[in-house]
């Protein structure tokens, strides 16, 4: 694979310009070896690779990797922190909503309780008024009945007197005589079956 | 040169350095490694400088790549695997940016060289082996002994497991290397057809539309491959690290 002849290892850089495709055919010696298999350049390539890649590795491991790692870490922390904050605020908002709902329910309950008592009170007042009015009316009625009864008694009492007077007069007119009031009264009492 | 699909992989010295007979020159490959590191680290550094709580668009890209690799690693190797996060993240970003930079015309593709992808793969496997033995001691070798296998089959199964473990760095590196290499060669070949046909007169220009359409389509595909191979490399890294963390199947 590494067909490299040291004789051509000292290939001068311009040699490649003379070759057309000769170098393609397995490193034909006419124009030097196929450049990737030219061992004379290996030492220089290895040295410079070691220098440049070593430097690159140092830069990466000392500067770049910690820096980008730090940026990403910082961002991750910040996002986590913001999410926590958002969660906290959401919880706060939820609590506020719950408190509001609770208060609203309380207020509703209180309002309905007030309405209930007001209704009860009004009902009781109306009931009481009705009762007192009824009682008053009953009293008035009883009084009226009493006075009617008195009037009736009085009237009935008068009927006898009137009947005696009338009967005395009738007897006087018809018989010309005179009868005593006591006779007439006895007669009336007998007539009315008393 | 325009039609040579290989010249784009040619390594050219920019600043020649030689120490003890070893050629350690700063090359175009080195330049694009530096560019890869500069672009990747610079982008990640600048876009996260504000540390915005609400990310800007560019900061989101950095954060997305971070979380992409993190979830990949957590799924592949569990939460204990997160200790390897800087390594997996560096590998993913390095390979991804190197692949994507390679998509610019005239830019060199660092990951199109086997030695680079092999070195990265060996880094992964080396980490797995070292961490595995350090954490679990000889119990790490349980990795090669699946539980519940009948005694007769055990030698065969252990052999298969060992071979599959040894082939991991090869498959890991060759997959990335071959994908980048083949993709860039194909692109260059089809783009080369456009140029050669275009020089053939009116009929040629008319026909050149076909490879042009192909080149456009392949460019889109190559962007997908550039991302996909970085992803595959990182996912397999996570799976191999999982073996180091939990060797008993």
- Poorly predicted runs of chain A: 1-31
Structural class of chain B: mainly alpha
Assess the beta-strand content of chain A as a share of residues: under 5%
Q: SS-based structural class of chain A?
A: mainly alpha
Round the mean pLDDT of chain B to the nearest integer and report it: 91
User: How much helix is in the residues of chain A?
Assistant: over 70%
Query: In angstroms, what separates the terminal alpha carbons of chain B?
Result: 53 Å
Kindly, what is the distance between the CA atoms of the first and last residues of chain A, rounded to a whole number of angstroms? 171 Å
What general outline of chain A do the C-alpha atoms trace?
A: rod-shaped
What pattern of helices and strands is seen along the backbone of chain B?
EEEEHHHHHHH
Strand order of the largest sheet of chain B: 1-4
Number of structural units classed as domains of chain B: 1
How many strand segments of chain B? 4
Strand element count of chain A: 0
InterPro entries (chain B): ATP_synth_F0_asu, ATP_synth_F0_asu_AS, ATP_synth_F0_asu_bact/mt, F0_ATP_A_sf
Family (chain B): Belongs to the ATPase A chain family.
Pfam family, one (chain B): ATP-synt_A
Protein name (chain B): ATP synthase subunit a
